[in-house]
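User: I'm curious what two different proteins look like when written out as structure tokens. Can you demonstrate?

Assistant: Sure. I'll show them one after the other, since each token string lines up with its own sequence. Here's the first protein:
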Amino acid sequence: MSQHRQTRIQRRNSEAILEAALEVFSQQGFRGATLDQIAEVAGLSKPNLLYYFPSKEAIHVAVLSRLLDVWLDPLRAMNPDGEPVAEILGYVRRKLELSRDFPRESRLFANEILQGAPRMRAVIEGELRPLVMDKAAVLTRWMDEGRIARLHPVHLIFSIWALTQHYADFDVQVRAVLEGEDPYPAAAGYLEVLFRKLLAV
């Protein structure tokens, strides 16, 4: 078998393991999930799985690290040279779309945070905090320039997280109250009005 063929197979198996792990962790939580369950969902033997990842903890960290990168991309995309309200509303929209498109990932990340982030604290402090501080400085500059209302910049970011991720993390509750109605179209309109009023000078 050629090296190229091996690399492709290894890549496919790694992806299968991470996708299976996401499914199992999001349903069972870290404590309830087992390597046997992940291997079964991935369609691999447990020894084969352990060839790629040495432990359940290693798989969990890999899933969460990839998820954090996806989660940070919308904030990275906020352009310091753009029109402030449009940039902030764009961030709100992208975060809401992540909740709509990746609800399992959102709940998995929320569960890790609720447990005190035992496997992700270093990553969160090393990647998330500097990015938030950088964007908070951008928000503060826009406020100083009189382009958006004076607000606490970090708590503004927290509010965006809370108001968008709620729809994924509490999906069952949201849909029960709305009797199964898709919440996202109305949520998008509501959040745009809310933040336009909040940011208005």
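Here's a second, unrelated protein for contrast:
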Amino acid sequence: MTTIQAPAAVVMIRPHNFQSNPETRFDNAFQTPDTATNVAQRALEEFDTATSCLRKAGVQVHVFDDFGERETPDSVFPNNWFSTHTGGHVALYPMHVENRRRERRTDVIDMLKQDYRVSDVVDYSGLEQDGLALEGTGAMVLDHIGRIAYVARSDRANPIILERFCTHFNYEPLCFDATDQQGRAIYHTNVLMGIGTEFALICLDMIKDLDRRRTILDRLSESGRTVIDLSAEQIASFAGNAIELTGNKRVLALSARALDALRPDQISIIERTAIPLPLNIPTIETAGGSVRCMIAGIHLTRRPKRTAA
């Protein structure tokens, strides 16, 4: 049941001091102001309910607490600063704004080394000093089966680092320009599209270059996947920000808002091979990310548990 595309274990960061990040508002059109009281407490409750739902579905969730000492308002979105890959490879990424650079933490990497087979850690984070960023599996949507990195061009997806990543990790970069209905560049590719084992979610209308749009559609279709074409309105409800995981059965983790935005025919395509798993996170979504952003998949081989002599 487990596939290369759908990891059975994930890392999630529990936010004790959640807030919408003031440093990212200038280019994240998905952020919305939340003036209600108890925002941090509501986000914490949403997070705990979400991790409970994932565990009940059979997904292994490694939770790390962030108590807010380092002023990391976006720490609930760890998929941007690291990724893991089959063969024991881990990548660390440079982040676009200064306060997101503080999200990287050694205890997460230490856990991966202890519990999983890690052969190397490739660290691109030093390129932040040159003003360059590649924000992990937010900037890149990775087809782990076809070895393609789909990337919407933005300040968070530097082409120089992308080329290095693709060379190191054996992916083919497929870049494109994407804009929302107001003509604003899409800040992270993973709000525009998500790739499962047997299907792909994407808003083709946001890719204005028709030749590039056709190329992307062809590449997704050539992989044997059914392409679920989303509308701009569905993207605004985070319908593209989903991740396929392996639990007791294969599931598609997405927000409750995202699932509500999908049409019955689109849901039926997903349900052929995965069970939709809606997580209710309206407060967390005000920060401009959704379920996919909250989950860093572990594509590593677990070490056998040591037994006492």
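A detail about the second structure: The mean pLDDT is 92.
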